[in-house]
Amino acid sequence: MKVLVxxxxxxxxxxxxxxxxxxxxxxxxxxxxxxGTATCxxxxxxxxxxxxxxxxxxxSKEQAIxxxxxxxxxxxxxxxxxxxxxxxxxxxxxxxxxxKLEWSKAYAKEVLNTLNIATARFATASSQQTAEAIVKxxxxxxxxxxxxxxxxxxxxxCASEEEALQALNTIYKSGKFNDKKVVIEEMLNGEEISLxxxxxxxxxxxxxxxxxxxxxxxxxxxxxTGGMGAYAPVQLYEEHxxxxxxxxxxxxxxxxxxxxxxxxxxxxxxxxxxxxxxxxDNSGNAQPYVLxxxxxxGDPETQTILPLLQSDLFDALYACTEQTLDKQExxxxxxxxxxxxxxxxxxxxxxxxxxxxVFPTSGDFNNHTDGQxxxxxxxxxxKAENGEQLVTDGGRxxxxxxxxxxxxxxxxxxxxxxxxxxCQSLDYRRDIAKREATCQSK
Length: 442
Known about the structure:
With 442 residues, this protein is α+β, with helices and mostly antiparallel strands. The chain folds into four domains: 2-92, Rossmann fold; 121-186, ATP-grasp fold, A domain (Dna Ligase, domain 1); 190-327, ATP-grasp fold, B domain (D-amino Acid Aminotransferase, Chain A, domain 1), CATH 3.30.470; 336-441, Alpha-Beta Complex (Glycinamide Ribonucleotide Synthetase, Chain A, domain 4). Helices cover 29% and strands 29% of the residues. Strands 12, 15, 18, 20, 23 and 24 form a six-stranded antiparallel beta sheet that branches. A five-stranded parallel beta sheet has the order 3-2-1-4-5, sandwiched between helices. A four-stranded antiparallel beta sheet has the order 6-9-7-8, sandwiched between helices. A hairpin with an 8-residue loop joins strand 7 (141-146) and strand 8. Helix 7 packs antiparallel against helix 8 (161-173) and helix 13 (407-418) runs antiparallel to helix 14. It is globular.
């Protein structure tokens, strides 16, 4: 089988890496790919941008691609699946109307309310004046979200009315966001869980839960980012698995079965185990709420969980295109995974371009026999006099993943690995999975 993976980040490197382990996959093309996919087993980079639908379609037909896997959110929101399926291609991913669960937060909120799934109360506004009035009139209105796609940077969690008004000023006056519609939400209290699920239009199959670290700096301080690291498995999920199944997954599965919800691809469910402030010391009272949906594999969650997947990823994705997901049984390793993102010091304000970066040559990253993997993201290979040189090409440059039987050991392996990378402007959080490792050691 031939597969085309569309995208060029760490998520796509992880997908290519996992697909290459399938005995059914002979060739993988990644468009445009990065420095990591350029040297990944069975994989060849293709110099076509993710938004160049015509060239991607022409290439897929020319190469007789058996399955196209869409990574990023932008092409999904612009209808790449619709275009490819109209051209007769088999594609894993939601069409434009299905992907609206991600590209419109207001729409996702309406769907959650219709399905009676718990989510934070909210209001929408299409102008700064209206939005400011909502914030001033409601003490609960402290989370401000750009309605459309914003590369993971359009969410502002505010501690006060003043901060919420500043967030609105940033959205409407900074020029960073094209979308002028905002969703203003109540701030919920509790820990978040990332739950990715595979969907084939009628069946929903949960993948391994993980927990992302979205804030830029240690102790969850600083601006929101696309994600600075993640870990799996998550004890919090296991503690509340029955409630999540009953209150979140069961209604979604019912909606799919009854045709009230139509979705094919990865439905990413951003969960929060909410508890009232009065019961902050009693986690047993926490209840699952849905913060958001994404319509694709998460990043860095994908880099975190795919190394733990023992089943064939290609078989599972292909089954989603045939509506035979119910016949697939996914199995997972019992190990722990810790993923630490190596980013530019200036991220998320700006990225790193053209700086030399050197990864360790020891260790077999294709087979992770030593419990360590590097997935490249913001990198590219440049032609040089002595061959090729790897340089930085983004804000989030790579993911260092550690695997071990215990989370504390997985953390140690991830952080040991990241210290061996040579890159002058490199920075990373030092507390990824720290709390989980501490809890497990007690």
